[in-house]
Amino acid sequence: MNLKDIQSQQDHRNIEINKVGVKSIRYPITVLDKQNKTQHTIATINMYVNLPHHFKGTHMSRFVEILNTYRKGINVENLSQILMKMKEKLDSESAHMEITFPYFIEKQAPVTRAKSLMEYTCHIWGTHNKKADLIVGVEVPMTTLCPCSKEISNYGAHNQRSMVTAAVRFKKFFWIEDLIRIVESCASSEVYPLLKRPDEKFVTEKAFDNPMFVEDVVRSIAARLDRDANITWYSVESENQESIHNHSAYAFIEKGTKR
């Protein structure tokens, strides 16, 4: 059957489109897991290419075809290959891919050692122009306790539920778990999926003994990333949801080589 290819027809407006493609594809993928080798999860994926001025449209179905080819193993090690395939199949000079997925790590409570699964939101951003540019990011919840509140109060201190987002460029492969570990080590206290009463006592007192402003959180994480020779660029942001104010506290640091 000979069906007309409208997308490949010429467009006469002479305007290039920077990004065109598909968004919000929900897709099962397999990612590398430091403890268990692999982990199955469900990702939300955006895929784009640039569209030269002389093409009327891109071929949307080809994005899904490419995704289906690699669905059993999408990770930072083969993302460059996927991006190259997008450029080739869609006759484009640049390709972009954004992958967001829940990632689960088994955590033990600090005292009782009770085990449960902790969920983290992870991101992989990839762009390929003349060469690949890959960024990995994690969203990590934590507890912070206000140093000022502790200092001025006769007893007690208010705390915050904080969400830290750390994103990095890197020279060679690293584990998502290691980046999460760096972020959690800079909290007043970690967040756990399961706490018994002895554990709750422990984390409450640990936070009280380790008060941190939102500025302290991002500086501490940045200092850890500065010492990692594998990291060429990073951004760190923390939003602390205040428990005694009707607003959040926020801090952001970016450092390194931009591409």
User: How large is the count of helical segments?
Assistant: 6
Structural domains: how many: 1
The backbone outline, from C-alpha atoms, is elongated
In CATH terms, the superfamily is: Urate Oxidase
Question: Would you tell me which CATH topology applies?
Answer: Urate Oxidase
Helix content class: 10-25%
Question: Would you mind describing this structure in some detail?
Answer:
The structure is a single chain. The protein is an alpha+beta fold. The protein has a single domain (17-256), classed as Urate Oxidase (Roll). The chain is 24% helix and 42% strand. It has six helices and nine strands. The protein has helices at residues 60-70, 79-89, 147-152, 176-184, 197-209, 214-226; strands at 17-33, 37-51, 95-108, 115-128, 132-145, 159-170, 189-190, 231-241, 248-256. Strands 1, 2, 3, 4, 5, 6, 7, 8 and 9 form a nine-stranded antiparallel beta sheet that branches. Helix 1 (60-70) packs antiparallel against helix 2 (79-89). The radius of gyration is 22 Å and the shape is elongated. It starts with 16 loop residues before the first strand and ends with a strand. The model has no long low-confidence stretch (mean pLDDT 90).
List keywords for this structure.
259 residues; alpha+beta; Urate Oxidase; nine-stranded antiparallel beta sheet; 9 strands
How do you describe this structure in short?
Helix content is 24%, strand content 42%. With 259 residues, it is α+β, with helices and mostly antiparallel strands. The longest helix has 13 residues, at 197-209.
